[in-house]
Design a protein that fits this description.
The complex is a heterodimer. By secondary structure, chain A is an alpha/beta fold. Chain A is built from 19 helices and 21 strands. Chain A folds into 3 domains: 132 residues, no CATH class; 160 residues, Rossmann fold (3-Layer(aba) Sandwich); 231 residues, Spore Coat Polysaccharide Biosynthesis Protein SpsA, Chain A (Alpha-Beta Complex), CATH 3.90.550. Classes of the chains: A alpha/beta, B alpha/beta.
Chain lengths: 686, 744
């Protein structure tokens, strides 16, 4: 009996010991660590025992009943007039019939206005928006230094008026009540800025270029990775403010509080800022934009131009066009009370982000800020987007190349309809094309060409644009094709070629002259290449422009076969969007010029596409190289072409054409392998 | 049996000893152990219960047991909301301090029950939804229980519905919070503001500087960049499970399902219905429902009864009209059904409009234009409607679905304002997962032709073939655009030749010694690379002519002439006119020998092809131009274990590079110049090896391996290559820019 008890005693005893050790040890350990170092468990929000039984914040009946008091009717609401919104202060019905037309008040000699305002008005007058008839106008524009706007005959409380106010600190800021007029204001302050109604502009000097403007000149997309980031304080003149390896914090330099900074002039005259300072901008990765001074937004433009990532303070001002431009993709925004973190914040940026930011600065500069014209058009397009809200640009159209001014929402608001966004949208162009054949006054019906083109497996339809004096052949006279053949009677104008005909059902257009000679395999290969480059012109015959030093003007030739910058639209693939852009974005005088002169329409189309893409066109091989459309050989015709190039260049404000020296051939083109292995073997037969 | 026998034998010998003093000993021992155990037990649980009882954070408790706080009638009331508040004037960012993760810390006040002098409660203690919201915050990364480290404070006083509370007393309760401080950095959540008859669009409780996440803001009460506009939560979200409806035509074009519409609006809608017949459906409250049927879940049109919200899935567009309040719970139901909301509520600040792009998911119609709405909607193409439907559903899933998603979106928006440089991008907020997956955003998206003057850096990877290496260096140095030559010496056992032995070339030559013999060393982003363009070249590629290399990068003969032109041309035309293959395609791999991947139907896997094909999908990096950014991507951003795999197998680094570039840019490679047999002195590289059958098998394995790591086949197949304009044209050779191309 005793032995039995002892037999149990041992295991029990040891079990107790074990328990003691197990339970006591962690506790002892806990005691050994000072309380401050102990890992703390988070006291979280309690899980209530009765949380399932808690009442809902609103009864189901109450939510759906929500009785509407008389005050919620439209008229009652409107009478409250608490501030200006597009819905309350703008009469959109004026814009329904004629579209977005802009009237500019004629400025008499008695009204002295500044040069900047002159440029603004001139830009509008030369644009496609302009109308001279106030009856059909949707928007009335007047310069900020025009006196007594209230006295204008059509003022009407300022409704549908837009005032360009480009001189911060002028009399307009001294208690002028714009009423229902929109203010496009340089450097607005939050107190005066009516969000969603006013437009924020950048400040720019008198000497700003009217159109074109210098292109972005970024040399290195990537700053050298390892070096510490450089921050440049824009607007400081002397060179010792700039330290390659350190971050310059403005408060270090000025030693003043943020309150006192508002009225501090940053630098008086920036138009004289010279290349030394500019060069330093180009070498910097980040540029600090001092806030609240009159020229803040001008410094911003300088930084954008130099590809220097702007560092903005989040307080106090509306960045230019902030309604449509997502500044987070091109600038570093930081709260000024967090400035001491700036260095680590900048150094913590992943290289991919820095790369993207730098590219975005260049894109923004080129798309919206490089000239007065672009700034003015962007302002007008922002207003247009507000009026036609259902057909306004999606975010990507404003914030990705080629930018909102070159992506027309009147064409479409869907990304997949444009040639630029296939990758971002995750789609691809449709795999068929429409052939558009222009039959001019001296041409025969292009029967053979129709057959060759219709033989392509990618051809969806053939459109014959009949611009001949004689009537088109009867229905039965045309060759039998498997694809539909449609004859369009043109208005016998050259610009008809690029009219956006609603019958065009595919993304790709093959533009042809009746005299062009192409084989099916040439068409097939060119189309396959176009599918890889849907935003460019892909064609066969090329020309080149060059700078003629003796005459100091541009010249145009077919005598430089090693390079090219223009692909003739007598035989070329391009996206149908360019028809729309050609017809609706170019001003009427430019299109009239094309109608008057012969053979200039190709050049204008190439200018337009190059302006959009910033890239050269693409050349593909053609079997019969020397049987081109006979180009005008006599000197007058040559002079005319040269004239065209110069007039277009001056209208665009710069030369957008880009040279290329390559041709895209089939992979096995003229290689020493059996012809039977080659897919496009017909391209090589002469 | 055996054991018991043993015990029996040993037993009697021990018993006598036990009997006397040992018993006492055992008992003492036993009690000591027991005492120790009890002491430990008490020690273990006692202090804890003391600590936490003060904070009543013991897990299981009832809401009814929370401490009661009596508010004296004369306790202070905060100022009314300050309409001029902005983040930089009313918000104290210093409290948020520096946080390496750029994440704000949020504190939740503990729950109390507030009563007035007469013991009458000020409001419901807490509603189910507000409890869910606070639980979600508490479970998130934003949460802290340390009031001293918090940046944002969320009172547990429930103000979701203004109707359920007494305004003055609630304000007094707010004012006595521990860190109230005029409401600085306090965040209130309110979904149903206002009271009859005026229905203010923001919470009427005086709250001084506190941030308001409100459900019915109008532009006039919303403090832009300070308040947050949130949705009105619909409890149907949790009750009804509506699976996402695929694209395709729906029965009704336009539907109105709200019950308490203003008569004027209802008559407008009915006029639309009369005009457009079947495609418009205006529903109203059912009048003759049988007992026990929830009237909120049914809608009627004449005698027809419809299930709500299921009926919303039958329509393309659903009207969301303002009622007494601007914010409507119906918006949430409509989004859940994937119906595109047509929002008719002038001045309404849409939920999360600071970050969400409502243009993609809704149509906003001014109240005045209600009668014209049908034609506006009809002008939207079907494809776009389907995208809007998908977008609407995604907004609901991500930001409307639960109190948790509403709370998280609100905190993230405030977080983005405090750390704007680390804010979430537009795409992350707005792109549905399917779009994020299918879209490609090229890291080199700017159509910029790099200036010609920059030139390129050649990187030669070598092990020990010095003689061949020197020949390559001599050849490459003839290319005019070369600006620097980098030799990556991958042999750790042997020193590179002395300086005097290297060929004398006109550009700087630098030798980099590596720590390990790895193939990835070729793609390391060396600091020495100062140009954008990189030419990767093997130490045995000597069959390419200088013309061919130069063409791969840019133009030679025109350069001088055009340089002069440039200098004198107008300043606006500074971009160099000459451009060559890589410069025209700086975001692509531009290489000489091309390869192809094919789908092997028999084996159902990818196959590597190097025969004479009409297509190209890869170029060998034995000699190729590319942007130096890809070196960075290869070294630091290569997905999965591909980099290690390549180093371990000593093969396929070029295929990996092709995959990487095609995946991030979505573009095909460019093959330059005609096909030629690559002849090499030792014939071990590229083609020499490629002929080997096992080599081909291994390369195919690589493609399959990489395709599975990338989860897709990023390579793009093209049928073209780049030649000089006049290549093989009937044209005098000496007038061509690049005559020496394609010769063997």
């Amino acid at each position: 009996m005793q032995s039995r008890r002892r037999k149990y005693l041992w295991p029990i005893l040891s079990a107790f010991w074990l328990l003691l050790v197990l339970l006591g040890a962690p506790r002892l350990q806990q005691l050994a660590i000072p309380p401050g170092l102990r890992p703390k468990t988070l006291t979280s929000w309690p899980r209530w025992l009765d949380q399932e039984l808690l009442p809902s914040f609103v009864g189901p009946e109450e939510l759906s009943k929500d009785p509407c008091p008389p005050s919620c009717s439209t008229h009652e609401w409107r009478s409250q007039k608490l501030g200006c919104l597009m819905e309350t202060c703008f009469d959109t019905s004026r814009c329904q019939s004629q579209g977005f037309k802009v009237f500019v008040y004629p400025i008499g000699p008695t009204q002295p206005i500044s040069e900047v305002h002159h440029k603004v008005l001139a830009s509008i007058e030369g644009s496609r928006y302009h109308t001279v008839n106030p009856e059909e106008a949707c928007l009335f524009v007047l310069p900020g230094d025009a006196l007594g706007p209230q006295l204008l005959p059509l003022w009407n409380g300022g409704q549908n008026h837009l005032i360009f106010h480009l001189h911060p600190g002028s009399w307009l800021d001294l208690g002028f009540d714009p009423g229902q007029a929109m203010m496009a204001r340089a450097n607005p302050t939050p107190e005066t800025f009516r969000l969603g109604f006013d437009v924020s502009l950048p400040f720019f000097p008198q000497s700003y270029p009217q159109r074109g403007g210098s292109q972005s000149q970024l040399v290195h997309l990537i700053p050298t990775w390892r070096r510490p980031v450089g921050l440049r304080h824009v607007g400081s003149g002397s060179s010792n403010q700039w330290d390659q390896n350190a971050i310059l914090i403005p408060s270090d330099r000025h030693g003043e509080t943020s309150k006192g900074r508002r009225d501090r002039p940053c630098k008086q005259d920036h138009t004289t800022e010279q290349s030394e300072d500019q060069k330093r901008l180009y070498n910097s990765t980040f540029c600090f934009i001092p806030p609240n001074c009159r020229l803040g937004s001008f410094h911003l433009l300088q930084a954008l131009k130099a590809g220097c990532i702007p560092v903005l303070l989040s307080r106090g001002w509306e960045p230019p066009f902030s309604e449509v431009i997502d500044w987070g993709t091109s600038a570093i925004v930081i709260d000024e009370r967090h400035l001491h973190q700036l260095k680590s914040a900048l150094q913590g940026l992943p290289p991919a982000r820095v790369l993207a930011l730098r590219q975005q600065t260049q894109f923004l500069w080129d798309a919206y800020f490089s000239s007065v014209e672009k700034i003015v058009y962007t302002t007008l397009e922002i207003v247009r987007d507000r009026i036609f809200r259902a057909a306004s640009r999606p975010w990507l159209l404003w914030n990705a190349p080629p930018g909102g001014l070159l992506a027309l929402p009147t064409f479409s608001t869907h990304l997949a309809d444009f040639p630029f966004y296939y990758q971002r949208h995750g789609s691809r162009p449709s795999g068929r094309f429409s052939a558009l054949i222009w039959v001019g006054s001296l041409d025969q019906p292009p029967m053979k060409l129709i057959q060759e083109v219709a033989g392509s497996q990618h051809c969806a339809q053939i459109l014959v644009l009949w611009s001949n004096e004689s009537p088109p052949p009867a229905q039965g006279k045309w060759p039998q094709t498997t694809v539909p053949l449609i004859v369009i009677e043109g208005k016998k104008k050259k610009s008809d070629r690029f009219f956006p005909y609603s019958t065009i059902s595919t993304d790709a257009i093959l533009s042809l002259d009746a005299r062009s000679s192409l084989s099916t395999s040439e068409v097939d290969f060119a189309f396959v290449v176009w599918l890889s480059f849907p935003e460019r012109i892909v064609g066969f015959q090329t020309r080149s422009h060059f700078w003629d030093e003796t005459n100091g003007s541009w010249d145009y030739t077919d005598q430089r076969p090693n390079e090219f910058s223009v692909v003739l639209t007598a035989a070329a693939f391009y996206h149908r969007y360019y028809h729309n852009l050609f017809t609706h974005s170019l001003p009427a005088p430019l299109r009239d010029l094309v109608d008057e002169l012969s053979a200039c329409e190709d050049i204008l189309m190439n200018f337009l596409v190059a302006e959009v893409t910033k890239l050269p066109p693409i050349k593909v091989p053609q079997r019969k190289q020397l049987q081109e459309v006979p180009s005008p050989q006599h000197p007058r015709a040559e002079q005319q072409l040269k004239n065209c190039v110069n007039r277009f260049a001056s209208w665009f404000g710069r030369m957008p054409l880009v040279h290329s020296q390559l041709r895209l051939d089939p992979v096995l083109f003229k290689d020493q392998v059996s012809v039977l292995r080659k897919k496009y073997r017909h391209l090589e037969r002469l | 049996m055996c054991a018991s026998v043993k015990y029996n034998i040993r037993g009697p010998a021990l018993i006598p000893r036990m009997k006397t003093k040992h018993r006492l000993y055992y008992i003492t021992l036993f009690s000591v152990v027991l005492l120790g155990l009890i002491a430990t037990g008490v020690f273990q649980f006692w202090p804890h219960s003391i600590e936490s009882s003060s904070d009543w954070a013991v897990e299981k408790r009832s809401v009814h047991d929370v401490p009661v706080v009596k508010l004296p009638a004369d306790s202070p009331i905060p100022e009314r909301g300050d309409l001029s508040c902005r983040m930089h004037t009313c918000f104290d960012v210093y409290r948020c301090g520096f946080n390496p993760k750029n994440k704000i810390k949020v504190y939740i006040y503990s729950l109390k029950k507030y009563v007035d002098d007469f013991e009458v409660p000020v409001s419901n203690t807490i509603s189910r939804e507000y409890n869910e919201l606070l639980t979600a915050i508490s479970d998130s990364d934003f949460y802290t229980d340390d009031i001293n480290r918090a940046c944002l404070f969320v009172p547990s006083i429930d103000v979701l519905n203004q109707k359920t509370l007494r305004i003055k007393e609630t304000a007094q309760a707010l004012a006595q919070l521990a860190r109230w401080d005029r409401g600085t950095n306090q965040l209130l959540f309110n979904m149903l503001p206002g009271e009859p008859p005026d229905y203010n669009t923001a919470l009427d409780v005086p709250r001084d500087r506190a941030l308001l996440a409100g459900g019915g803001f109008s532009t006039w009460t919303y403090r832009q960049g300070y308040d947050v506009s949130i949705p009105v939560y619909s409890s149907l979200s949790a009750e009804v499970d509506l699976p996402e409806r695929g694209p395709g035509p729906r029965r009704y074009f336009l539907l109105s399902s709200q019950m308490a519409l203003h008569p004027e609006y209802r008559s407008d809608l009915e006029a639309l219905q009369a005009k457009h017949g079947e495609s418009v459906l205006v529903l109203e409250k059912c009048t003759n429902l049988s007992e026990g049927v929830l009237s909120t879940r049914k809608r009627c049109h004449k005698d027809q009864v419809f299930d709500y919200p299921q009926v919303l899935q039958e329509a393309s567009f659903c009207v969301v009209l303002r009622g007494a309040r601007l914010g409507q719970a119906a918006l949430s139901d409509v989004l859940q059904a994937g119906c595109v909301p047509v929002i008719i509520a002038d001045s309404y600040v849409l939920p999360f409009s600071e970050v969400l792009d409502w243009k993609r998911a809704s149509v906003v119609i001014p109240e005045e234009k209600m009668r014209e709405m049908y034609s506006v909607l009809r002008s939207i193409p079907q494809r776009q409607i389907e995208e809007m439907q998908r977008q609407a559903r995604w907004f609901w899933e991500a930001y409307f679905q639960s109190m948790k998603s509403i709370a998280m979106a609100t905190l993230q928006i405030i977080n983005d304002r405090i750390y704007p440089y680390a804010a979430i991008s537009y795409e992350e907020w707005n792109d549905p997962p399917a779009v994020k997956w299918s879209s490609v955003s090229n890291p080199l998206f700017l159509p910029l032709i790099p200036p010609q003057s920059q030139g390129f850096t050649a990187i030669v990877l070598t092990y020990d073939r010095v003689e061949s290496l020197f020949r390559v260096i001599t050849e490459v140095s003839k290319v005019p655009s070369l600006s620097k030559l980098l030799v990556v010496w991958n042999n750790q056992n042997k020193n590179p030749p002395e300086d005097s032995l290297w060929p004398k070339i006109r550009v700087p030559l630098k030798v980099v010694r590596t720590a390990e013999n790895k193939l990835s060393n070729r793609f390391f982003p060396y600091d020495e690379i100062e140009t954008e363009a990189v030419l990767a070249i093997d130490d045995d590629i000597i069959m390419l002519t200088a013309d061919e290399l130069q063409f791969g990068y840019e133009m030679r003969k025109l350069r001088l002439k055009q340089g002069k032109q440039l200098a004198r041309g107008p300043a606006a035309h500074q971009r160099p006119p000459a451009s060559q293959v890589w410069r025209e395609f700086p975001d692509r791999l531009v290489g000489y020998p091309g390869r192809l991947h094919l789908w092997d139907h028999e084996m159902s896997k990818w196959k590597y092809e190097s025969e004479w094909t009409n297509e190209v999908s890869m170029v060998l990096t034995g000699v190729a131009f590319y942007h130096k950014y890809f070196n960075y991507l290869y070294t630091y951003k290569m997905p999965g274990d591909i980099k290690n795999w390549v180093d371990a197998h000593m093969n396929c680094e070029d295929i990996a590079m092709n995959f990487l570039v095609a995946n991030v840019t979505g573009k095909a490679v460019i093959k330059v110049t005609p096909r030629k047999k690559f002849k090499c002195p030792e014939c071990t590289a590229i083609d020499g090896l490629s002929l080997d059958q096992t080599h081909m098998v291994e390369r195919s394995e690589c493609i399959n391996k990489f395709a599975s790591v990338f989860g897709t086949m990023p390579l793009k197949v093209v049928e073209h290559r780049a030649d000089p304009v006049l290549y093989k044209d009937d044209f005098p050779e000496k007038l061509k820019s690049f005559p020496n191309i394609g010769s063997l």
